[in-house]
Amino acid sequence: MSISKTLIIMPAFNESSSISKVLEEIKANALGIDVLVVDDGSSDDTSAIANTYAVSVLTLPYNLGVGGAMRAGFRYARALNYSSVVQLDSDGQHDPKYIPDLLGALNSADIVIGARFAGTGTYSVSGPRKWAMKTLSAALSVVCKTKLTDTTSGFKAMGPKALKLFAQNYPAEYLGDTVEALVIASRAHLSISQVPVEMRLRSGGEPSQSPLRSMVYLGRAFMALLVGLSKKSKRI
Amino acid sequence: MNFLYFLTIATSVAVFVLIVQMLRKEKLKERHAFWWLGASLVSVVFSIFPQVLASISGSLGFGVPSNFLFFASIVVLFLVALQTSTELTKLEENSRTLAEQHAMLQLRIQKLEEQSFPRDQ
Known about the structure:
The complex is a heterodimer. By secondary structure, chain A is of the alpha/beta class. Chain A has eight helices and seven strands. Chain B has helices spanning 3-24, 30-48, 50-59, 65-116. The mean pLDDT of chain B is 91.
């Protein structure tokens, strides 16, 4: 086997306004890590913009959702013998400078989550949505047997075992790629940890704060949690 | 023998013929036609011999034969809907896998082309 090869996977759905900024940032950080942009059926020129950089672009024929884009990325990574991957959003919310931190923590865990609310950064969510997220994190901390503060973060690093598992099983449903994926991983006896990161506001603005939508969000999250728990545990 | 008697026979036979026709024209696969075919066949029998329906529903303890008919129809419709949903799930997974493979092959072709015919810059 070759030495550890890492791939950055960037799921992108109509991100033509922000993707070049993120790709520039990755280049500026001089990480020397291969990048794969998964264009999730965008109708804008996300693929064309990404193709002007020294990255690989996987263009899905139609929208599959973040989970769908990520599984395609995991399969690509497996096919090209990468041993670990980092998921980085294309909307500029995640700062590539934390990638070495995530990869460093991968030495002692199978999955590392870049988490808000873990000390670093000023990103704050308030009101009902905050309580929804806290409840969810508390529940998932119990399931995963480790303290997690930001279970819906899309900024994650995954080692060889997680890569193998997720290339086979990665839900495409809403919240399936975050909540349910963590349940699947913990039930397959993978270790999960988190490192604190600072996140920026999405260019798309803040998520809704209304109590009703927070309730719906929490309901769907627990649905994803229960579905994950009810599935037969996967072998790697 | 009243008008209603012949109307129910005509309807159930028409439905049965329709399903068989769809099967013959390959607009419906056997796997999906199974429940429809069974239900329409049973309704043909019941419409010609209503006493069969009455005796079955009576022996099962239904007070009114039509209640038994409603119950049986709901069960059949439920099973058909459930089967459709599982088929849909399978098809979604299949199309997801196809989309992934399509994208990966496209990327491979793109890379091969770049190797074989490098853009002059």
